[in-house]
Write a structure and sequence with these properties.
It is a lipid-anchor; GPI-anchor. One of its GO terms (biological process) is carbohydrate metabolic process. Residues 325-385 are annotated as: Disordered. The strands form 5 sheets. Strands 4, 7, 8, 10, 15, 16, 17 and 21 form an 8-stranded antiparallel beta sheet that branches. The chain is mainly β. It has 2 domains: 1-48 and 315-328 and 347-359, no CATH class; 52-279, Jelly Rolls (Sandwich). It is globular. Helices cover 3% and strands 33% of the residues.
């Protein structure tokens, strides 16, 4: 079994596995697509260019617009969402994000990136100790804007933001929800401009952040989310025993893998009915030479180091990288199990979820626990569990 090399901004990936994934591991293929961090990769162009924003109203009446990350090669014209884990269609009206025992949950990530815009998700969260539902915007350099929901508190949405993954836990603020996040659909909205972020629930503003309040005089920069981000909808085990103690406490404790929902259905679940995306124009002064993709031209990873280009976003196979996008292995048939010709052992090609926070390694925040009294409704999926 190939042990993937770990990576961060101080430990860049080697040339044979040049792409540093969202979860801090080096590889080729899908590692070079969504979530590939150019600051931690072998070179800035090791990561494939990112598809530009697309305004659309996504209604989850089927899974036709969802492609597994074991099949997606960067062609955002052919899919809307890239999945890992097990999304399941339910009653032709919503998708279930599932988390069965011995898994790390389910993630849907948008194929297109957003460089400022308004995004809303109409959804129901999961419930239970250690179970975390998330609706976030996450850039490849780990700028992040969050709605997160702890399964032991079904009347609170946590709003949060990070600049390049720096763990400033004072950034978190709770927003009250009028009724159960598990029983009832609510629409959660993030309105992100170059100067501010607004979090709203069911049309009511819950929080506004002004960019000017994020100035760090020591670092001489605004620590404000400012780089192209994917929309991510996820259900993950914050209370996984292998996570840091701070994360487990923040998530409300260890996951109960014998919960009533798991006994009834075989998994914990969250439901997503609709996602609406409205793209804004690139920021003033942006480096615009095309209309197809975003790239970085500096490891600083800030607003002024992003360029809008016509560069290709599609890899030919799962052994390709940003610097060799036409690399092909005819024996692989674009399979995640293919062996890389450039290494003696199989290079990792499809990153997996880690069971830890998507943008930051841990959290020392705490949440007020409340016991959910809502009862599950029986479900039958049109897709295998």
């Amino acid at each position: 079994v190939y042990a993937a090399t770990t990576c961060d901004v101080n430990n860049k990936c080697p040339s044979d596995t040049p792409c540093c994934s969202q979860y801090g591991q080096c590889g080729v293929g899908a590692y070079c697509l969504g979530g590939c961090d150019p600051r931690s990769s072998f070179a800035l162009d090791s990561c494939a260019p990112a598809p530009v924003c697309k305004s659309e109203d996504f209604k989850f009446t089927n899974l036709d617009g969802v492609t597994a990350n074991t099949k997606y090669l960067g062609d955002a014209s052919q899919t809307n969402w890239v999945s890992s884990g097990q999304p399941i269609m339910y009653q032709g009206q919503q998708v279930l994000l599932t988390m069965a025992p011995d898994t790390v949950g389910t993630l849907l990530a948008s194929a297109h990136y957003l460089w400022y815009g308004k995004v809303s998700a109409t959804m129901k969260t999961s419930r239970g100790a250690g179970v975390v539902t998330a609706f976030i915007l996450l850039s490849d350099v780990k700028d992040e804007i969050d709605f997160e929901f702890i399964g032991t508190d079904l009347v609170t949405a946590q709003s949060n933001f990070y600049f390049q993954g720096i763990p400033n836990y004072w950034n978190e603020k709770n927003i009250s929800v009028d009724s159960s996040t598990f029983d009832d659909y609510h629409t959660y909205e993030i309105d992100w401009t170059p100067d501010s972020i607004t979090w709203s629930i069911d049309g009511q503003v819950g929080r506004t952040l002004d960019k000017n309040t994020t100035w760090n005089a020591t670092a001489n920069r605004y620590e404000f989310p400012q780089t192209p981000a994917r929309i991510q909808l996820s259900l993950w085990p914050g209370g996984l025993a292998s996570n840091g103690q701070g994360t487990i406490e923040w998530a409300g404790g260890l996951v109960d893998w014998n919960s009533q929902d798991i006994k009834n259905f075989g998994y914990d679940y969250a439901m997503v009915k609709e996602v609406n995306v409205e793209c804004y124009q690139p920021p003033s002064g942006a480096n615009v030479t095309g209309s197809k993709s975003y790239i970085y031209n500096s490891p600083a990873g800030t607003n002024d180091t992003v360029a809008l280009t016509n560069d290709n976003t599609i890899l030919k196979s799962f052994i390709a990288t940003g610097t060799n996008m036409s690399a092909d292995d005819s024996s692989s048939s674009a399979s995640a199990s293919a062996s890389s010709k450039s290494t003696k052992s199989a290079a990792p090609q499809v990153p997996g979820m880690s069971g830890s926070r998507p943008g930051s390694d841990s959290s020392s925040s705490s949440s007020t626990a409340s016991s959910g009294s809502s009862q599950p409704t029986s479900s039958s999926s049109s897709s295998g569990t």
